[in-house]
Specification:
It is a single chain. The strands form 6 sheets. The protein has a 22-stranded antiparallel β-barrel. It has a 5-stranded mixed sheet with strand order 1-6-7-4-5, covered by helices on one side. It contains 6 helices and 35 strands. Helices cover 5% and strands 58% of the residues. The radius of gyration is 24 Å and the shape is globular.
Length: 659
């Protein structure tokens, strides 16, 4: 089953809203998720530690309160959910080096039956043996970064196959921030008669990383590589990272199968998946140990009865997912980081049944109306194994959408849509652990009842190109405004450690702009390739205790830009990542606690000749000291540990051989 870039581009062109189509293999360096998704409007990635850890991913304000980052977007692997049935995910399981393309359907522009959240969906589509016969990639860089990938594929008359193995090691810029990941992805495809296609996928990932955790704001400048425990203060002794050993270790085995058959008049697709995940997370004061098994199935059908030129088209789908989880909570020893007494053990059962029906109507040659509705029934049952305490919760809702596409010119498409979204809490919000740093014996847990987060969103925008020939300027633009009720807000204690989640009752507003530009121009006998994106995120509390304040978690402005001069086999040029204004780190918007704005400058040199390619990339050339991310609080002070220093000046080099 081969879904090519052209086919996905044509599918996204029918969506009346903001989307992204990314081709990771066009990037020489794919050390992190941000390498694959940089320069994409509307997708905000904030690095935590700079390795294969847990960067914060947000689309239109999705999941900004979650810590660890685990909700708000439906992650898909080859069109099937990677999330557990409760909506949570481990973002470090994603492997962009194995992706032929990444398709992002932002917000309510998602296409699969199970995507109802504010952030939409992000689909990583694997390379197959029919697309690439093989590749060897090696990378090395500052702070002990080492990466290897080897992939081989083959194609026959009816079968094709591919297997990719990758291994990453990173000592870390900061103390206590080493990370590693080993991963294997394989797929086997079969082409049958009558347009029948089937593909089976196998994925195994083993991920672990140390957590250097947060520090007070003044240490960003004075000791950006340091952690709590490097100083002599009482706070350093209490939160000594070396002794408490915060870390995460997770592994997952996943099997999936997809079949597709039919024609444009009636095309059907059936997918099933199973995944087994073990996850250990020590946040300094408590261990969360989770074992989960998830199974799911998804059927989709689409058609255009009168053929491709017909006025009517439809699609429908049904999805089901079930997760059985066992979660244990242990206090953490402040002396040696070992597990102490168990203070909570729970059986967690999540299930989703969701259905989708959509219709598009070409009312005029250049105008198409699109309408859809999703129906969802979600359950989140939680029961203590040591007591009679349980919390069984369920939500049933519909998420309708109506939109319009206008082909204003042969190269310009404009759109508008109005939609609803819903997001139920995950077990990271429902199971709440409280463990004091100075008193592990008092650790306790409770089950929290929460409402689903809901939003109504209006979006307008467009995409197209200026100019003719082989070097037009491509542009995309989207503006949205979402009115939210019961937004899920997480709280942290004085040490920056999450202690709970609640529904904000005063109402919130998410609005923003997502702009992208890319082009190529002749220059100095070569070609100047350029691209840029600007994501404006204006998120505010409408009422309640923080009325009028900015919601902490996402930079108000994020600007990425790159210029690359191409001469023969060589490309060279600068890039920047710019946060032009300060970002609140707490919902009270307390002065002096902001994440200060910054500019990171980089430069890249690339060479490609035949099957060989190589690159040399320098980042943060000025060795800027800055906070890459932070712990989100209701109210904060700059003296509290709450900031994650970003990676300093670094150099990475790599070579690839493709056969």
């Amino acid at each position: 089953m081969v879904d090519g870039v052209d086919a996905e581009r044509a599918r996204l062109a029918r969506v009346p809203g903001g989307t992204n189509l990314v081709e990771p293999q066009q990037q020489n360096r794919l050390a992190t998720l941000r390498d694959a998704l940089d320069y994409q409007p509307g997708i905000v990635i904030q690095d935590f530690f700079g390795g294969t850890d847990q960067p914060r991913l947000s689309i239109r304000g999705s999941g900004i309160q979650s810590n660890p980052v685990n909700r708000g977007v439906l992650l898909l692997q080859d069109g099937l959910p990677l999330n557990e049935a409760d909506g949570s995910f481990i973002i470090g399981f994603l492997e962009p080096r194995n992706a032929a393309l990444v398709s992002a359907r932002r917000g309510a522009n998602a296409l699969t039956p199970g995507a109802t959240t504010l952030g939409g969906e992000l689909d990583f589509v694997s390379l197959t043996g029919a697309q690439e016969r093989g590749r060897v990639r090696a990378e090395t860089g500052s702070y002990g970064r080492q990466a290897l990938q080897a992939a081989v594929g083959g194609v026959g008359e009816r079968f094709d196959s591919r297997i990719s193995a990758s291994s990453d090691r990173f000592d870390g810029y900061r103390h206590h921030s080493a990370s590693r990941r080993d991963s294997v992805q394989a797929n086997l495809g079969f082409q049958g008669d009558g347009n029948f296609e089937n593909r089976t996928y196998l994925t195994w990932t083993d991920l672990s990383f140390q957590i250097p955790s947060v520090v007070p704001k003044d240490r960003i400048a004075s000791d950006p590589r340091g952690v709590m425990g490097d100083g002599a203060t009482a706070q350093d002794q209490l939160l000594n990272v070396y002794k408490r050993d915060p870390r995460r270790a997770a592994d997952q085995l996943r099997l999936a199968n997809r079949s597709r058959w039919g024609s444009d008049t009636l095309r059907q697709e059936l997918g099933v998946y199973w995944q087994d995940t073990d996850d250990l997370f020590n946040n300094q004061t408590s261990y969360t140990v989770t074992h989960s098994r998830t199974v799911g199935a998804q059927w989709q059908a689409s058609g255009r009865p009168a053929g491709e030129q017909g006025a009517w088209g439809w699609r429908t789908g049904v999805s089901w997912a079930q997760s059985d989880m066992q979660r244990e909570l242990y206090a953490t020893s402040p002396v040696n980081g070992q597990q102490l007494q168990r203070f909570g053990v729970y059986d967690l059962d999540a299930s989703n049944v969701q259905a989708l029906a959509a219709l598009d109507w070409r009312v005029a040659p250049d105008w198409t109306l699109v309408g859809s509705v999703q129906w969802s029934q979600l359950t989140r049952d939680a029961a203590s194994r040591t007591s009679a305490v349980r919390a069984d919760q369920d939500w049933t809702f519909a998420t309708p959408k109506v939109g319009v596409n206008w082909a204003a010119t042969p190269t310009t498409r404009l759109w508008a849509n109005l939609s609803r979204s819903h997001e139920a809490p995950t077990y990271w919000e429902i199971v709440s652990a409280t463990a004091a740093a100075n008193s592990p014996s008092t650790a306790s847990a409770e089950l929290v009842r929460l409402a689903a987060q809901r939003a109504t969103t209006l979006e307008v925008g467009g995409e197209g190109q200026w100019g003719e020939g082989v070097r037009p300027v491509r542009w995309s633009a989207a503006a949205y405004r979402s009115i939210l009720a019961d937004e899920l807000i997480s709280t942290t204690d004085a040490n920056g450690i999450k202690v709970g989640t609640y529904n904000y009752r005063g109402g919130t507003l998410h609005q923003g702009l997502e702009l992208g530009l890319a082009g190529a121009q002749p220059l100095l006998g070569g070609v100047l390739d350029w691209r840029a994106s600007w994501t404006l995120s204006d998120y505010r509390f409408r009422g309640g205790v923080y009325a009028g304040k900015q919601i902490a978690g996402v930079p108000r402005h994020l600007i990425n830009a790159e210029l690359m001069l191409r001469q023969g086999a060589w490309r060279v040029g600068p890039n920047l990542r710019w946060l032009p204004v300060d970002t609140p780190t707490d919902h009270a918007n307390t002065p002096s606690t902001e994440q200060d704005g910054y500019v990171l400058l980089g430069i890249k040199l690339e060479w490609a000749q035949g099957p060989w390619a190589a690159y040399l990339q320098a980042e943060n050339l000025t060795d800027r000291r800055y906070a890459s991310s932070y712990a989100i609080r209701n109210q904060a002070t700059a003296a509290q540990p709450g900031y994650l220093p970003g990676v300093g000046r670094s150099l990475t080099a790599g070579v690839t051989y493709k056969f």
